[in-house]
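Good morning,

Attaching, inline, the backbone tokens for the sequence recovery test we're adding to the shared suite. The designed sequence is right after.
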């Protein structure tokens, strides 16, 4: 198990890496929607230098605002795959451990004060294009891609993903804040494919990205005690990052106390809860 962060949105890349290394985190996940980390702003030579200088692992979050693999526009989907290829090239060059991405979205149309969404039309569309376009793309991908829960994974999307996950190495990024707003059984049923967990909190209505404990996210829903991959704190603000880190440590320690499997002391912080961690007491 490793604990890392998406950095404070105000920090430059160098400041972010310094904070992460000084605070003892294991990895950084760069959000490529941020101007500091866009494909146009940061090249792989800069990233490699920062990774080596501060001895932290790299995870990548592909840009969500410029990609929509569910678009009804073939041109936009084509552009989305071209953008993803650039992200994959960067991830491959920098030896990123995980690259998280979103599927995209279908539009809701406003009409006479109401919202209109034709589920059946989009359901057929989504299933068809994911099988025809995403599956072959994933089969040729040289890096580990992890799909994040951002929309409803039901119907055609779920059917296509069941097919894709059985024939490719697609991994999953479970976002506990998003799950609190919209439950997604697909991620629980395929938890063995989860390699990255995004940690933040909310009130169950809005995607607020609060520190854990500030909303009503229920961590007991997820089998975190057996998870041995990446925890990524996604509050994007220094104080809430530290607050979330400490909340997670106490939560996992409390679980092991109840199960009488505790082999760590709270005062040891990360040293005992994760052998790979560099936190000091």
């Amino acid at each position: 198990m490793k604990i890392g962060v998406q950095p404070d949105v105000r920090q430059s890349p160098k400041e972010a890496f310094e904070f992460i290394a000084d605070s003892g985190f294991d990895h950084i996940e760069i959000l490529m929607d941020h101007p500091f980390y866009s494909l146009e702003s940061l090249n792989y030579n800069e990233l490699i230098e920062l990774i080596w200088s501060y001895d932290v692992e790299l995870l990548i979050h592909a840009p969500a605002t410029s990609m929509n693999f569910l678009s009804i526009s073939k041109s936009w989907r084509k552009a989305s795959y071209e953008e993803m290829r650039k992200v994959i090239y960067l991830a491959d060059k920098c030896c990123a451990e995980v690259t998280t991405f979103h599927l995209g979205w279908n539009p809701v149309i406003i009409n006479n004060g109401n919202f209109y969404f034709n589920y059946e039309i989009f359901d057929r569309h989504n299933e068809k294009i994911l099988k025809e376009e995403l599956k072959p793309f994933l089969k040729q991908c040289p890096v580990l891609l992890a799909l994040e829960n951002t929309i409803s994974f039901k119907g055609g999307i779920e059917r296509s993903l069941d097919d894709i996950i059985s024939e490719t190495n697609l991994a999953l990024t479970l976002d506990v804040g998003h799950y609190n707003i919209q439950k997604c059984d697909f991620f629980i049923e395929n938890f063995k494919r989860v390699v990255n967990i995004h940690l933040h909190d909310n009130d169950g209505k809005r995607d607020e990205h609060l520190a854990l404990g500030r909303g009503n996210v229920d961590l007991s829903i997820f089998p975190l005690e057996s998870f041995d991959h990446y925890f990524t704190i996604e509050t994007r603000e220094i104080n809430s990052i530290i607050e979330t880190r400490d909340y997670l440590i106490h939560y996992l320690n409390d679980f092991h106390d109840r199960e009488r499997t505790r082999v760590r002391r709270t005062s040891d912080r990360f040293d005992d809860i994760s052998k790979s961690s560099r936190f000091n007491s």
